Amino acid sequence: MIMPREPGYLERADAAYDAGQFEKALELYHKHIELEPDAPEGYEGLGLSLWALERHRDALQALNTAQKFDPENAGIAINRAALLTDVLERHQETVAICEGLTRRKLKQNDVRDARYFAAKAHFRLGNDAKALALLDAALRDAPGDIELLSWKAHVLFESGHYEKSKLVHEKCLQLDNDDPGIWWDYGLVVEKLGDEAAARQAFERAHELDPEDFQLPVTIPAKDAERIAVRMLEELPDDFRDAIRDVPVIVDDFPSREFVLENPTLGPQILGLFTGNTHNERQPVPTAIMIFRKNLEKIVGDREELVVEIRKTLLHEIGHYLGLNEDDLRERGLE
Known about the structure:
Blueprint: H1 9-18, H2 22-35, H3 40-52, H4 56-69, H5 74-86, H6 91-102, H7 108-124, H8 128-141, H9 146-158, H10 162-175, H11 180-192, H12 196-209, H13 222-234, H14 238-243, E1 249-252, H15 257-262, E2 272-275, E3 288-292, H16 293-297, H17 303-322, H18 326-331
Helix pairs in contact: 1-2, 1-3, 2-3, 3-4, 4-5, 5-6, 5-7, 6-7, 7-8, 8-9, 9-10, 10-11, 11-12, 13-17
């Protein structure tokens, strides 16, 4: 009678990883590596398990080792690129990896992934045009790829091209009407275009699909937000109040489209903004501190949290005006 072969460490590790048992997978991948120290599969699995456990630098080291033992493996390279840009924010390294991949003859899925992660990295480096070109190139081969489409919609939105973003979001919703993230982002776009009713419906749909991750905005009238800001200014220490006495504090809904188009790395969802000279500069540049009410409304769970966030944002921008950093504000109890 032939007894069935007992699965080896690698097979058992892969099964544990697929089942979400990452600590167990980690142990089994280590045992496989002890037996086959030059095999890339063990290091790749080790890297993905460490990533799942949020040990990101160890994960990168393991994936780098896997690549060393299999330098032509596009899948390992793409995992490295994803970790570098999605988690570690080392976007230039992602660009270099992906550009190296696209110069090779790859499977279509690998080409798609290389362009996708290169696009993300370029976007985060502030190169929106390059990001969009890469996404369009990937979409020519996969026009119905909703991940590519939703990222294109995101890049267009963040760079201030709201009408184009709306059209791409609508295409995404035609492909998947039950994705709460797409509904939420669609709400952000149509809100910027002034369609409050459509925005509210989109936010409600996102909340209906995923009430935990997509809470409805906590709305507050503009006059109330202004009163909160004024009260907080009155509560500042005397030296702070004296320093900003002639600096207008403006409560607005969002940053202007012109600002977003000129500052794509900041985007339309910023909470506050300091413009002009710092306190010690004397150039004739208009100075103002701005907080953006509708953006703040979307990051809180209730009105009490909203008041706290208005205060934090106001202090943050005042700190910029005064040339202070986060540690300076913390030392003064003004965090």
